[in-house]
């Protein structure tokens, strides 16, 4: 009998098809109409997104996307294809690897159809978000399920819904930071993560109510899906690999949207205080993303750098994301084989 073929579905967030205002508006509309991203009743979300956020934000965001765009397009997408191809090569012909984006293209449905056409008998789904959040991993998993639920034959499915403590994920990020640390004597490291509305953390911690305070400093079975606790844990693991003591790093959250409170502390606020404390040379990490994207290159590497310099800082270097690093691909291979 022929050996069974295993499908691997890599899912990332997605990016606009181009940096034009109309494509960015289309992307924002699809993204922000997701009830796991803006978790308010449908009618309020519809009015807010279609009537206010998408039209007002699209021209501003399009200018930011234009800074990110290179000849190959948006890094989130072309690194996604690179990772798919590298992982396929490493896993060999018994596996079929596909890439789907939660929003825009290539869609999750297209990617799943590729796996179906390759006659895979089981599928390992890896949402490419190191820390679990309902707005990212949860939404990707829901979309995968919605698609396969329409199939006549539903293959065996397994999901890797967080991997921030995978040794090779940590090692790959540490390697990128250590390369920069060899060239510059930094005063401090900032770990800046994508933020979330506080409400979303509270909703996800039924039975073990997160207080959004020091309770997130410990990571254990009961709060393993608290996004804030996962980010703190990721930072501790990275700090250990980088040989940092507790006073040599700060953890913060970026990319706020709207007026509701988001998880704290906020990166744009903490960075302004650092030079006052004598911290002039900062190494900035963005470990919520596995590829360069708008939130890393433009926000952390561009906007935050400018704000830090204006506040009296001297060096603000962004650690490149994992992109197509060999250690990261080896980590993905291990995740698939252990799934
Ligand atoms: C309510 C709004 C948002 C939530 C919640 C949110 C969670 C969240 N997002 C990511 C990953 C990425 N987000 C990116 C861009 C981006 N995010 C939001 C809003 C929310 N995200 C917006 C409006 C945008 C678009 C850009 C802008 O207009 O500011 C990206 C970058 C994509 C790219 O094309 O490069 C990523 C990646 C995670 C992991 C997450 C939950 C933890
Ligand atoms: Fe986001
Ligand atoms: Fe928490």
**Main pleated sheet:** 4 strands, parallel
CATH fold annotation of the largest domain: Rossmann fold
Spans with pLDDT under 50 lasting ≥5 residues?
Answer: none
Distance separating the two termini: 23 Å
Walk across the major sheet and give the strand order: 2-1-3-4
- The helix count comes to 11
Give the C-level CATH assignment of the largest domain. Alpha Beta
In the CATH hierarchy, the architecture of the largest domain is 3-Layer(aba) Sandwich
- Coarse structural class: alpha/beta
| Fraction of residues in β-strands | 5-15%
| Estimated helix fraction | 40-55%
In total, the number of domains comes to: 2
Structure description:
It is an enzyme of class 4 (lyase). Its EC number is 4.98.1.1. Its main location: cytoplasm. The chain is of the alpha/beta class and 339 residues long. It has two domains: 6-163 and 326-338, Rossmann fold, CATH 3.40.50.1400; 167-318, Rossmann fold (3-Layer(aba) Sandwich). It contains eleven helices and eight strands. The chain has helices at 21-32, 42-68, 75-91, 108-117, 134-148, 167-183, 198-203, 227-242, 267-273, 294-310, 326-338; strands spanning 6-12, 95-101, 122-127, 156-159, 188-194, 249-254, 281-285, 315-318. It has a four-stranded parallel sheet with strand order 2-1-3-4, sandwiched between helices. It has a four-stranded parallel sheet with strand order 6-5-7-8, sandwiched between helices. β3 (122-127), α5 and β4 (156-159) form a beta-alpha-beta unit. α1 crosses α2, α6 (167-183) crosses α8 (227-242) and α9 (267-273) packs parallel to α10 (294-310). The longest helix is centred in the N-terminal third of the chain and has 27 residues, at 42-68. The mean pLDDT is 96. Residues 194, 255 line the site of one fe (ii) ion.
């Amino acid at each position: 009998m022929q050996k069974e073929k295993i499908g691997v579905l890599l899912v990332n967030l997605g990016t606009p098809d181009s940096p034009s205002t109309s494509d960015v508006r289309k992307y924002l509309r699809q993204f922000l109409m997701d009830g796991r991203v803006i978790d308010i009743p449908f009618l309020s979300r519809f009015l807010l997104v279609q009537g206010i956020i998408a039209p007002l934000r699209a021209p501003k965001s399009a200018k930011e996307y234009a800074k990110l765009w290179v000849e190959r397009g948006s890094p989130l997408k072309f690194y996604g294809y690179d990772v798919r191809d590298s992982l396929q090569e490493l896993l060999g012909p018994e596996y079929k690897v596909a890439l789907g984006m939660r929003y825009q293209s290539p869609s999750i449905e297209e990617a799943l159809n590729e796996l179906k056409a390759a006659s895979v008998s089981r599928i390992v789904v890896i949402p490419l978000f190191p820390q679990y959040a309902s707005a990212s991993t949860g939404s990707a998993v829901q979309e995968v399920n919605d698609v396969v639920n329409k199939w006549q034959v539903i293959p065996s499915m397994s999901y890797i819904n967080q991997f921030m403590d995978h040794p090779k994920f940590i090692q790959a990020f540490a390697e990128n930071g250590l390369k920069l640390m060899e060239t510059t004597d930094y005063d401090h490291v900032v770990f800046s993560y994508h933020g979330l509305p506080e409400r979303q953390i509270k909703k996800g911690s039924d039975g073990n109510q997160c207080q959004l305070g020091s309770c997130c400093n410990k990571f254990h079975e009961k709060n393993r899906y608290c996004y804030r606790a996962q980010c703190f844990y990721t930072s501790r693991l990275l700090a250990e690999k980088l040989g940092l003591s507790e006073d040599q790093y700060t953890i913060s959250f970026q990319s706020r949207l709207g007026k509701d409170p988001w998880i704290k502390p906020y990166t744009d606020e903490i960075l302004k205080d650092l030079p006052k404390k004598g911290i002039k040379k900062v190494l900035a990490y963005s470990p919520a993303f596995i590829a360069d994207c708008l939130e890393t290159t433009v926000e952390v590497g561009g906007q935050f750098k400018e704000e830090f310099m204006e506040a009296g800082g001297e060096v603000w270097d962004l650690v490149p994301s994992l992109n197509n690093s060999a250690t990261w691909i080896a980590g993905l291979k291990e995740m698939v084989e252990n799934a």
